[in-house]
């Protein structure tokens, strides 16, 4: 399974600081059920165990930084023990899935209504074809007001407590759209340089967002981090199934619908 998956999302494409690949499990163990999820958290592992999964594929790493212990006295240690005692392997595809063509941001673009040709927002210089990279830029079939684009994006993404936050004139026309799954304020300049009317991403910080919103030349849509990456799960599962020979491989995949966004409650929101 790992060979087929890595042919789609090559670990060599991952950022130097990232930790991707097999986290725990025997590479030689038979795999019949694979659960895809964004986060390797306790509820996802419980879902995998209840479903009888042999493997969990997550977007976010469990062990991104070095550790000296996986004792069950720590949250991550408990997860490792639960996975091992349940016979469940864990595999991570993170920035290698972000930069892949197609990858995380292609699925995000499709979810918010971009169905035409896409180009990388921040191209990978190691790709001579210029197709891989972080984020995507594309065009809507016809311009729409920002408020309509935001409403379309809200319908296309899974619901979270915080929903979407929007900066910009609600009546401004939107045609060119930049998106990036996950934290994207480091790409604000790239979105402006790409001529985007709006940039949809997650985890926008106050000061960079304020600076760009003040200029008024690009609108911003800030979604939950988890929500911007969740659409990729179905695409990753489908591509792996095809790579394994479809139904002939006797492998079943499932996309977790558990909302693992960190924020679970919101209070005091001002009315629009």
Question: What's the topology here?
Answer:
Blueprint lengths: L1 H7 L12 E4 L8 E5 L4 H10 L3 E4 L16 H11 L3 E4 L2 H5 L4 H8 L7 E5 L9 E13 H11 L8 E3 L5 E11 L4 H6 L4 E5 L3 H10 L3 E5 L1 H5 L1 H13 L8 E4 L17
Parallel strand pairs: 2-3, 2-11, 3-4, 8-9, 9-10
Antiparallel strand pairs: 1-4, 5-6, 6-8, 7-10
Helix pairs in contact: 5-10
Query: Total domains, how many?
Result: 2
Radius of gyration using CA atoms only: 19 Å
Helical coverage, percent range: 25-40%
Distance between the termini: 48 Å
CATH secondary-structure class of the largest domain = Alpha Beta
Count of β-strands = 11
Remind me, CATH topology of the largest domain?
A: Udp-n-acetylmuramoylalanyl-d-glutamate--2,6- Diaminopimelate Ligase, Chain: A, domain 1
Query: Would you tell me the structural class of the helices and strands?
Result: alpha/beta
Question: Strand count, sense and closure of the main sheet?
Answer: 6 strands, mixed
Strand order of the largest sheet: 5-6-8-9-10-7
Order of secondary-structure elements: HEEHEHEHHEEHEEHEHEHHE
Characterise the protein shown here.
It is a single chain. By secondary structure, the protein is of the alpha/beta class. It has helices spanning 2-8, 42-51, 75-85, 95-99, 104-111, 146-156, 188-193, 206-215, 225-229, 231-243, and strands spanning 21-24, 33-37, 55-58, 89-92, 119-123, 133-145, 165-167, 173-183, 198-202, 219-223, 252-255. The longest helix has 13 residues, at 231-243. The protein is globular.
């Amino acid at each position: 399974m790992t060979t087929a998956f890595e042919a789609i999302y090559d670990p060599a494409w991952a950022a130097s600081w990232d930790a991707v690949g097999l986290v725990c499990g025997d590479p030689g163990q038979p795999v019949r059920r694979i659960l895809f999820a964004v986060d390797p958290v306790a509820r996802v592992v419980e879902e995998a165990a209840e479903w009888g999964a042999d493997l969990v594929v997550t977007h976010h790493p469990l062990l991104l930084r070095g550790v000296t212990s996986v004792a069950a006295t720590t949250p991550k240690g408990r997860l490792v023990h639960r996975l091992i005692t349940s016979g469940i392997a864990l595999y991570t595809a993170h920035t290698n899935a972000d930069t892949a063509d197609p990858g995380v941001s292609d699925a995000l673009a499709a979810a918010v209504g971009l169905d035409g040709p896409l180009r990388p927002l921040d191209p990978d210089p190691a790709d001579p074809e210029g197709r891989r990279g972080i984020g995507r830029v594309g065009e809507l079939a016809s311009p729409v007001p920002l408020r309509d684009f935001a409403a379309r994006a809200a319908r296309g993404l899974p619901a979270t407590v915080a929903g979407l936050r929007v900066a910009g004139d609600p009546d401004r026309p939107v045609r060119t759209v930049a998106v990036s799954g996950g934290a994207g304020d480091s790409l604000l300049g790239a979105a402006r340089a790409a001529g985007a009317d709006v940039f949809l991403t997650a985890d926008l910080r106050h000061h960079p967002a304020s600076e760009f919103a003040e200029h008024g030349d690009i609108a911003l849509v800030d979604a939950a981090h988890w929500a911007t990456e969740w659409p990729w799960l179905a695409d990753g599962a489908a591509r792996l199934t095809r790579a394994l020979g479809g139904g002939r491989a006797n492998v079943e995949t499932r996309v977790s619908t558990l909302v693992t966004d960190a924020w679970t409650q919101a209070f005091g929101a001002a009315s629009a």
